[in-house]
Every structure is written in C-alpha cells, then in structure tokens.
Amino acid sequence: MTAIVDTGPLVAYFIRSERHHRWAIDRVNEFEAPLLVCEPVLAEAAYLLRRHLRARDVLLELVQDGALKVAFRVEEHVGALRRLLRKYSDTPISLADACIVLMAEIHGAHSVLTLDSDFLIYRTSDGAALSLIYPGRD
Question: What tens digit of pLDDT does each residue of 25-62 get?
Fold first, then answer.
C-alpha cells in the first residue's frame, strides 16, 4: 500500500525536534514506495527545511530516487483547483492542500498522510470525505 503525503509529515520525518517526528517515521515506513506528492507540497517542505540543508537535499534525493513520486500536474487541473480554492476560501486551504484533495480523487485507493486537521473538512467533488492517516486517528 502507498499513500499521498502532505507537507507536515515530510518535514516531521526529517526534523527530530518536530512533535510528530517519531509518528512520521513510523507511518512512512509502513508504506511501499513511492509515496505520492505534488510539487506544491515539495515547495512547502523545501521552504520549511531551509535551515536544514542536508534534510532539504535528501528530500529532493527521494524524488530523484523514486521514493517520492510527483503524481500531479497543476497545469492539468487548474479549473478544479480554482473551484476548490474558492469553495474553501473561508478555510486556510493552500494550493498544496487543494492539490492533495484532487490527488485523493484521482488515486482513490490511497490515503492521505497528514498532520493537518483541515483535511477533515475537505471533500472530493462527489462530497466524499478523504481517507486520512493522521496522529490520533491511525
């Protein structure tokens, strides 16, 4: 089984001082590679890891080696992304979050690995809740 990965678990995986570091390591190790990501998640993670140069380099190495797979092209889903960003404009939805919601639709058999409770609110276009793996729920 594999999963769609949000920014939080990626950052927590690399940073020992992160509250969910151990949880992120344990969850990531439960899945088969590749874990699916989108470029906005990679951009957020790289930014948050900016003071951890080795971790940021390893993050990109995981993409290069195929352990993380970019499985979503923003340009192919601009209309749907715009609709989601408008729909959840009263919620702090990011472009990365919107991409993950659409990825969950596209890759329906995959759960979303996240630390973000906002994913409890987000729904697919047919109104279905996302299959989530997050601390306290797994």
Answer: 999 999 999 999 999 999 999 999 999 999 999 999 99
Range(s) of the domain holding residue 53: 3-133
Total structural domains in the chain?
A: 1
Evaluate if pTM is beyond 0.85.
yes
Residue 138 lies in a domain: no
Kind and range of the H or E run holding 5: strand 3-5
**Mapping DSSP to helix (H, G, I), strand (E, B) and coil, where does residue 78 land?**
helix
In three-state secondary structure terms, 133 is: strand
Q: Select from 113, 123, 98 the least CA-distant residue to 5.
A: 113
Residue 76 is which amino acid?
E
| CATH at 87 | 3.40.50.1010
- pLDDT surpassing 60 at residue 22: yes
Q: Element (H or E) spanning 70, and its range?
A: strand 68-70
